[in-house]
Write a structure and sequence with these properties.
- This protein has 425 residues and is an alpha/beta fold.
- It is built from 13 helices and 17 strands.
- Helices cover 37% and strands 14% of the residues.
- Helix 2 packs antiparallel against helix 10 and helix 4 crosses helix 10.
- The longest helix has 26 residues.
- It binds pyridoxal-5'-phosphate.
- The site of pyridoxal-5'-phosphate has 12 residues, from helix 5 and helix 6.
């Protein structure tokens, strides 16, 4: 398709877009009475209108039923988390019994590392990416110290080549082979939060398994954004916050995956609590822990249903649309955004550099743009003119047009505002 930087062309794309109708299912912040152009769905997804209904349903049940709501509510609270498995498993390519919702992301990764980071004198190293999201760095280092190892020896960071913005799969595989049988765990962000690069999760998982390591993926920027086949790829575990592309609301409950082959084991180390106890006997309050037969064995506390409700609401939309349609639109709208960026740059002679890979297989919804020669003023101009983007030091703005609610017209209008932002400097 030959793109054009014109309002008419953008409108034609919107008209043909089968997801266009879903925009209306979300609340947009307003700028001068109009919807903002929202590029920060990779940070906090917009509120699905259905979220309020689902939260109010729980408030109503609590109001009228009190404690009885645990069992008598329209959607009973005691097994509320089980409502996610079927639909959420389709988003991440898993079996329904491999996926649940609990806690928050960093907490879940800690809990999963209890099971899947089991260092021995010989096999104690963790491979992760350099400059991983800070929470992941702190988490991994503290786990290593907790087990009595030195992070400097135990953590092997994947590096980019000098002058390059992205990791090369061949280099990742080389590191995995080099660490070899000292590698206890490979734990990487499936989509890099800074550049938007999508790792070749299937190939990397296989290479790590060949060395006998466990493999976990932090899918904070991947869930609801890229194609995932966690079960078939033989991933051991994964977790994701759901307030980014999955629109579950600030600080809301996190999703979590544990491969079926680890279910039902009696000798797997795990931090346990009553919500992981087999549901049939949970309320007998017996002293001995009998695990749930599936991923829910990793549950600890009773379900925070008020924080889960918006996630469940959002998931209805994902289920109605399907990841395939989301990914199809994602590829087109990101290509259009890329075209708009290049077109603005050609027109006014600006030099911005897209550091996200140009290969559609290696990127999702996000484009990270280096603003050579322009500073934070451009960022502020955009924000003041109704464009929500985010700024990352030293000089990068991240643009993530979430396919469920961003339009092609948004991309065109963004081009106009960006041009003004630069010309006005
Ligand atoms: C957003 C994000 C987090 C956030 O962790 P919380 O525990 O939800 O605060 C962690 N890791 C990555 C890679 C992220 O992108």
């Amino acid at each position: 398709m030959r793109f054009e930087n014109s309002l008419e062309f953008a409108k034609v794309l919107d008209k043909k877009d089968p997801l266009n109708q879903y925009r209306d299912q979300f609340h947009f912040p307003k700028h001068k009475g109009k919807d903002v152009i929202y590029f920060t769905g990779n940070s906090l997804g917009l509120q699905p209108k259905l979220a309020r209904t689902y939260i109010e349903e729980i408030l109503k049940d609590w109001e009228t039923l009190g404690v009885e709501g645990h069992f008598e509510a329209e959607k009973p609270w005691w097994d509320y988390h089980e409502r996610f498995g079927k639909q959420l498993s389709k988003v991440v390519g898993a079996l329904p019994e491999e996926v649940t919702v609990m806690n928050t992301l960093t907490v879940n990764l800690h809990l999963l590392m209890v099971s899947f980071y089991r260092p021995t004198a010989k096999r104690f190293k963790i491979i992760c990416e350099e400059k991983a999201f800070p929470s992941d760095q702190y988490m991994i280092a503290s786990q290593v110290r907790f087990h009595g190892y030195d992070p400097k020896e135990a953590i092997v960071t994947l590096k980019k080549r000098t002058g390059e913005h992205n990791f090369r799969t061949e280099d990742v595989l080389k590191t995995i082979v080099e660490v070899g049988n000292e590698c206890a765990l490979v734990l990487i962000g499936g989509v890099n939060y800074y550049t938007g690069q999508v790792f070749d999760m299937e190939t990397i998982t296989k290479a790590a398994k060949d060395q006998g390591a466990f493999v976990g993926w932090d899918l904070a920027h991947a869930a609801g954004n890229v194609d995932l086949q966690l079960h078939d790829w033989d991933v051991d575990f994964a977790a994701w916050c759901s307030y980014k592309y999955m629109n579950s609301g600030p600080g809301s409950a996190s999703g979590c995956f544990v491969h079926k082959k680890h279910h039902g084991l009696t000798d797997i180390p795990r931090f346990e609590g009553w919500w992981g106890h087999h549901k049939k006997e949970r309320f007998l309050m017996a002293p001995e822990f009998v695990p749930e037969p599936d991923v829910n064995a990793w549950q600890i506390s009773n379900a925070p249903v008020l924080s889960m409700a918006p996630y469940l609401a959002s998931l209805q939309l994902f289920d109605a649309v399907g990841m395939e349609a989301i990914i199809t639109k994602r590829d087109l709208i990101v290509r259009y955004l890329e075209f708009i960026l290049n077109s603005v740059s050609d027109k006014i002679g600006a030099s911005f550099e897209i550091i996200t890979p140009s290969n559609p297989e290696e990127r999702g919804t996000q484009l990270s743009v280096f603003l050579h020669g322009y500073g934070k003023k451009v960022f502020h101009y955009l924000m003041e003119n109704g464009v929500f983007v985010d700024w990352r030091e030293p000089n990068v703005i991240r643009l993530a047009p979430a396919p469920l609610y961003c339009s092609y017209t948004d991309m065109f209008n963004f081009g106009l505002i960006l041009e003004q932002a630069i010309v006005s400097q």
